[in-house]
Design a protein that fits this description.
This protein is mostly beta strands and about 80 residues long. It has one domain. A hairpin with a 4-residue loop joins strand 4 and strand 5. The protein is rod-shaped, with a radius of gyration of 19 Å. The two termini are about 30 Å apart.
Length: about 80
């Protein structure tokens, strides 16, 4: 399990707090997202399966405001397998 925290940030040199009408100036709020990964090696077969979840609680957050309000990635779940020979 992993918690990824980003503190708040200002988008201009005046440290404007209120978000402008075009969404290009203002404070980007702090956020925390939770990620997790699980791996399982299947005996001595050389096969490992995995599942990964990012932004597990599907938090809506802003990552950039240079071109307006750009949201972060929504919940993402990936699964797969690897074979070591």
């Amino acid at each position: 399990m992993e918690a990824a925290y980003n503190s708040s940030a200002f988008t201009d040199d005046r440290n404007t707090v209120a978000v402008s009408a075009n969404g290009q100036q203002g404070e980007i709020a702090a956020y925390t997202i939770w990620n997790a990964t699980a791996n399982y090696a299947i005996g001595n077969s050389g096969v490992t399966v995995f599942v990964t979840g990012k932004n597990l609680f599907d938090k809506l957050y802003v990552v950039d405001m240079s071109r307006g309000l750009i949201p972060g990635s929504p919940r993402l779940v990936q699964a797969g397998a690897s074979y070591k020979f």
